[in-house]
Specification:
- The complex is a heterodimer of chains A (363) and B (73).
- Chain A is α/β, with parallel strands linked by helices and 363 residues long.
- Chain A has a domain of 149 residues: Rossmann fold (3-Layer(aba) Sandwich).
- Helix content of chain A is 39%, strand content 16%.
- Chain A is built from 16 helices and eleven strands.
- In chain A, the strands form three sheets. A five-stranded parallel β-sheet of chain A has the order 2-1-7-8-9.
- In chain A, helix 1 packs parallel to helix 11, helix 2 runs parallel beside helix 16 and helix 7 packs across helix 12.
- The longest helix of chain A has 17 residues.
- The two termini of chain A are 28 Å apart.
- Chain B has 73 residues and is of the alpha+beta class.
- Helix content of chain B is 25%, strand content 44%.
- Chain B contains one helix and five strands, in the order βββββα.
- Chain B has a five-stranded antiparallel β-sheet with strand order 3-2-1-4-5, with helices on one face.
- The two termini of chain B are 23 Å apart.
- Classes of the chains: A alpha/beta (363), B alpha+beta (73).
- Chains A and B meet through helix 6, helix 7, helix 9 and helix 12 of A and strand 5 and helix 1 of B.
Chain lengths: 363, 73
């Protein structure tokens, strides 16, 4: 990056203003980008022709309430320790959260790494440790690596409840949705650290839309936006990497190999969006003994979803957070209704924290 | 959630490595980056190294952090 970042950011911004020659709606699919854009106030500085939308980029936010109900039912069973990343504790199912279950006596433990869950399994041989696998391709290899360690150690009391999601299939689903209007993507930086660019080529080749892998500073995002403007000007949609510091075209093939060894694509529910074909991951059949869904089958009645929350429309970029009737009123970070307000990386939480004063002003 | 942070490898013991994260020493797993050597910089996510990056890239990411931190003060 350039030595004088402010000056460089101004140069990028001026270039975008000068060079944009058509309306361009860009969607980012990464919670860290959502926060960075909201915090830097970039939306206010861009030309009117450029609109930035936040897509389903926060794995916490897209976890379906019915799936979470299953996780909570499992956490209530005797002899189970449910280990989860802290982000999931306050995400509501149809009736409860893991935090509420914990306060009612479920053994729910917050871990920083799946390694900590392996440790819990070793220390508690008489209990079953279930790790809640949530996350995109950045996180899945880490969980696959932990599974590999569990296999090596021959752990009999460790399993994963996989709610992992895949980014390329949801991007395809958005491109196929007639309601969703977008012209380009900013690709999630660290998902691409793992996947590289190949799995995203279809966006340029089949749909003729640019996508640029961006870093997380304001200048990175501006640079990526300028690259998108130029792809349109030059009529050559492509997958390009702005975030060269951390992303190689080939990604991390070892990490992808671990994902493929332990997981297989399955249809998955996305909160507010619905079922998306082959957009999630379950454990492969040969590792059934490490698959919590198979080891602890649950027979529960599906709960009733909350209706008023606009999370689904927000996740698809059809509504801005403050267009939801609950935003900032019934739903705040202290008392969240929907997952987009729970996670600090959720669109609603980012808008609430950094852009609330501008609510009502077009951005 | 997909945040990853840079660190420098100080020691390697099998699949585990001791790394320096901005002055703090921590043990992480390096099985996803088998090519990583002592002295290399790696991106960390949830206790695992997920990619080897060069020193310049690591320093740029550290710098950006510092700026973000200062901006919050």
């Amino acid at each position: 990056m350039h030595s004088n970042k402010k000056e460089y950011a101004r140069f990028l911004l001026d270039s975008i203003h000068r060079e944009i020659d058509r309306p361009i709606t860009v969607m980012e699919v990464c919670g860290t980008h959502t926060v960075s854009i909201a915090r830097s106030g970039l939306r206010e500085l861009l030309p009117e022709q450029m609109q930035l939308l936040s897509g389903p980029g926060c794995p916490v936010c897209v976890t379906d309430d019915l799936d979470l109900d299953m996780v909570m039912a499992l956490s209530r069973q005797e002899g189970i320790i449910l280990a989860t990343f802290g982000d999931m504790m306050r995400v509501p199912g149809t009736e409860s959260t893991l935090q509420q279950e914990k306060s009612k006596g479920a053994d729910v433990r917050v871990v920083y790494s799946p390694t900590d869950a392996l440790q819990l399994a070793s220390e508690n041989p008489d209990l079953q440790v279930v790790f809640l696998g949530v996350g995109f391709e950045t996180t899945t290899p880490v969980v696959a690596a932990a599974l590999d360690q569990a296999v090596q150690l021959g752990l009999k009391n460790f399993s994963v409840f996989s709610l992992h999601k895949l980014v390329p299939p949801i991007m395809r689903a958005l491109l196929e949705d007639p309601e969703v209007k977008l012209d380009a993507f900013i690709n999630p930086g660290h998902v691409c650290t793992i996947l590289g660019t190949e799995p995203f080529r279809f966006i340029a080749e089949e749909y003729g839309k640019p996508c640029v892998v961006a870093g997380f500073e304001a200048a990175d995002i501006l640079e990526a936006l300028l690259m998108i403007v130029r792809q349109y000007r030059e009529g050559r949609p492509a997958v390009e990497i702005q975030y060269k510091r951390a992303v190689r075209p080939e990604g991390n093939p070892v990490a992808v190999g671990f994902i493929e060894k332990y997981f297989q694509p399955v249809d998955a529910r996305w909160r507010g969006i619905g079922m998306v074909a082959e957009s999630g991951l379950d454990l492969r059949d040969e590792y059934a003994q490490f698959d919590a869904k198979k080891r602890f089958p649950l027979d529960i009645q599906p709960g009733v979803r909350r209706k008023k929350c606009s999370c689904g429309e927000v996740l698809k970029g059809l509504k801005l957070p403050y267009q939801c009737p609950l935003f900032g009123k019934a739903c705040t970070p202290a008392k969240p209704v929907g997952p987009c307000m729970v996670s600090t990386e959720g669109s609603c939480a980012a808008y609430y924290r950094y852009g609330r004063k501008k609510a009502g002003v077009s951005s | 959630m997909c945040l990853a942070i840079p660190s420098k490898i100080l020691k390697i013991k099998g699949q585990m490595a001791e790394v320096d994260i901005g002055g703090n020493v921590k043990e992480v797993n390096i099985m996803l980056t088998p090519e990583a050597k002592v002295g290399d910089y790696v991106l960390l996510h949830a206790g695992y190294a997920i990619q080897v990056i060069d020193e310049k890239a690591a320093n740029e990411i550290f710098e950006a952090w510092e700026e973000a931190y200062n901006a919050l003060q």
